[in-house]
Amino acid sequence: MNTVTQRGMSEHANATPSDPVTGLYGGAPGEYELTPRNYWATTLFSRKYRDHGRDAPAIIEHLYEIKRGETKNIASDVATSLKSKEGLFESKFDLFEKTTHPGLRQLIAFIESSVKRAVWHVNGRDVDINRIKVHFSDSWFHITNNSGFHDAHYHGGCSWCGVYYLQMSDIPTDAASHAANGVNRFYSPRPSGGKHSDFGNNYLGAAHLDVPPTPGTLVLFPSYLLHSGLPYKGEKDRVILSFNSTSTLEG
């Protein structure tokens, strides 16, 4: 998935750094030109982890070891009605806080730096990035196979969420005639462009975005975005990390 970005509202359609822009519509040059401004854009980020090939096998084994110590498929006891009874294991929500595994701790540091950079980017990139402090309020992992799934949901008590793909086989790469195997599906916060649909809001018509769960890829998304994990069945288990985060500006 390519990183999706939106320009801030302070940029003029054809502006150069020396072009002043004032107010919602005014500004020079081109005071009478049609000037686009983006508001309430939904931004997602993706990033590859350079050390995935080296670290993933040991991290995955560590997660299976945790799983073997649990007695329930949904160890978190959270929103069980949205999760398949069979085919899905979900850990408790304190993974990042409690793990001492060196490879996983290094991956967590990568995730933290990525969230910090994403928060810095969407807030205009005009503060010292080192003032941004990221806290993981929840963190867990899923191991899925045999058509396990997680139904559509939001995440509460956080601003940015993410998923990191550790392992999966049978990764969908082309547009499918049926729901793609094991993808995370994100749903438009403005389905069909509102109550009326015509060519004027045709650009809002895509009701969902399917993200291929490519191993070694981190995907970040805002907490208000409705999403689901579609049923998965494959030669290898689908193993992912998930987390919720909050950020503060300090100093």
Write a concise keyword list for the protein shown above.
251 residues; alpha+beta; Jelly Rolls; 2 domains; four-stranded antiparallel sheet; 10 strands; 26% strand; globular; disordered N terminus
Can you summarize this structure?
This protein has 3 helices and 10 strands, in the order E-H-E-H-H-E-E-E-E-E-E-E-E.
**Rounded Rg:** 20 Å
With strands numbered from the N-terminus, the spatial order across the biggest sheet is 1-8-5-10-3-2
Under CATH at level 1, the class of the largest domain stands as Mainly Beta
Task: Output the number of helix runs.
Answer: 3
Per CATH, the architecture of the largest domain is Sandwich
Q: What number of structural domains do the residues give?
A: 2
CATH topology of the largest domain: Jelly Rolls
Distance between the termini: 35 Å
State the order of secondary-structure elements, H for helix, E for strand. EHEHHEEEEEEEE
Main sheet makeup: 6 strands, antiparallel
- Total number of strands: 10
CATH superfamily of the largest domain: q2cbj1_9rhob like domain
Shape: globular
DSSP helix fraction: 10-25%
The pLDDT mean sits at 87
Which percent range describes the beta-strand content? 25-35%
Based on helices, strands and strand pairing, what is the structural class? alpha+beta
**Uncertain regions spanning at least 5 consecutive residues:** 1-19
